[in-house]
Description:
The protein is an all-alpha fold. The chain has one domain: Up-down Bundle (Rhopdopsin 7-helix transmembrane proteins), CATH 1.20.1070. 70% of the residues lie in helices and 3% in strands. It has helices at residues 2-30, 59-85, 88-106, 113-132, 141-160, 168-196; strands at 47-49, 52-54. It has a two-stranded antiparallel sheet. Helix 4 crosses helix 6 (168-196). It is globular and about 50 Å long. The protein starts with a helix and ends in an 11-residue tail after the last helix. Mean pLDDT is 93; it is low at 199-207.
Amino acid sequence: xxxxxxxxxxxxxxxxxxxxxxxxxxxxxxxxxxxxxxxxxxxxxxxxxxxxxxxxxxxxxxxxxxxxxxxxxxxxxxxxxxxxxxxxxxxxxxxxxxxxxxxxxxxxxxxxxxxxxxxxxxxxxxxxxxxxxxxxxxxxxxxxxxxxxxxxxxxxxxxxxxxxxxxxxxxxxxxxxxxxxxxxxxxxxxxxxxxxxxxxxxxxxxx
Length: 207
């Protein structure tokens, strides 16, 4: 049964991450004059400047909708993940990330400061979950988890300090977000592999 929980948790995590990635990419295509360097990811849901907010469709529906789906799937994945590792902290961090992402979808940029606060919680919780997961995985997954999670946490601090370097606001924001999304894909695949025993390192080649 634990094997099934690994597969379910991994599949939910992978599908959740892919959903928001496609939501971002397609939303950027549909947003008129969108700049990856200058526009925030949140602009896809609602663009607010000097108190005036504009909503561009269908990019708004795609982005906000993908966050709702992703948030729900990641939170659900965390529940099954607890049955796999019996780690309250790992499941809680991942669950918080999922719930906060769901909240970002409900409260776009036009909703005020709550949007930015929820987005920050999502990034931080997901990055910390990636780092903490090293306790339950083997090499090279340990190394990948620390690097990707650490990148998000460190870059998130720099981002909050207003240090965007030459990447621009939007570029720096993506450097914060994408490492943990990549971790989600890799970690989800790792769980699926464990559950299906596609590769079993304990078995030697008899040939």
